[in-house]
Write a structure and sequence with these properties.
Helix content is about 50%, strand content about 15%. It contains nine helices and five strands; from the N terminus they run H-H-H-E-E-E-H-E-H-E-H-H-H-H. A hairpin with a 2-residue loop joins strand 1 (about 75-85) and strand 2. Helix 2 (about 30-40) packs across helix 3 (about 45-65) and helix 3 (about 45-65) packs across helix 8 (about 185-200).
Length: about 230
């Protein structure tokens, strides 16, 4: 017998779904969402919202990923640094040429071992072999691709990797709003969930007409409602 993923929670599932949706969909803090819900007559603390995001965000993300279509075989890789508890870490990120986030891996190093971990995870989880891998001039990518026998797929130079570099912008906005990540584990879990939910609602609105945008929004909302239903898959 299937059980509800919202069982033993005091608040109605629709409230939980809405709170988690607002956090991942917009650049809002937990306290912002608390204020918005209070204005709608729902008195819930920001700490409760944080626990909802931590628990249900990963559940929703796994469901979205399991139902998503295969990405493009052209991958763009990039890494940016951030600080967690005063220590430097790197956010290794991969997107395809259509802007779909493939994966985000939080690591303490910016070396060949770290690049290998990202590439092996991509090759294992994407279900499709890349035709081209676009990177910046970091030597770790070249060394890692050589070890995997994929050096011939690397494409480097000019502004070819702008797609991956621009994909860090939503993360930076959320990071500033949440006043930095608390730990590597928390950052990894949050960013992995954010990537899948971002993909669902990423319509690239500057490239499509208004009528097409409305259609895509409707489809995304239907998929979200299906994904966040109360019963376990």
């Amino acid at each position: 017998m299937k059980t509800s993923i919202y069982s033993r929670h005091r608040f109605h599932p629709d409230i939980i779904r809405r709170a988690v949706w607002m956090y991942f969909r917009f650049n809002l803090s937990f306290r912002d969402i608390e204020e918005l819900l209070i204005e709608r007559g729902v008195d819930v603390s920001y700490e409760t919202i944080r626990r909802w995001v931590d628990k249900f965000g990963s559940t929703y993300a796994k469901r979205i990923r399991s139902r998503s279509v295969s990405p493009s075989p052209i991958w763009h890789l990039d890494e940016v640094y951030t600080k967690i508890n005063g220590k430097m870490v790197y956010l290794w990120r991969a997107v395809d040429d259509e802007g779909t986030v493939l994966d985000v891996v939080v690591q303490r190093r910016r070396n060949t071992k770290a690049a290998l971990r990202l590439l092996r995870k991509l090759l294992k989880n994407q279900g499709i072999k890349p035709n081209r891998i676009v990177t910046d001039r970091l030597g770790s990518y070249r060394a890692a691709l050589k070890l995997l026998g994929l050096k011939h797929l690397q494409d480097v130079g000019g502004r070819k990797n702008n797609r991956a570099e621009c994909s860090h912008v939503p993360i930076r906005r959320g990071e500033r709003k949440s006043q930095k990540f608390r730990s590597v584990h928390q950052a990894q879990k949050l960013l992995s969930s954010h990537a899948q939910i971002y993909n669902l609602f990423n319509h690239r609105r500057h490239l499509i007409s208004r009528s097409t945008l409305r259609k895509f929004r409707h489809q995304a909302n239907l998929k979200w409602n299906l994904t966040t239903t109360s019963m376990c898959p």
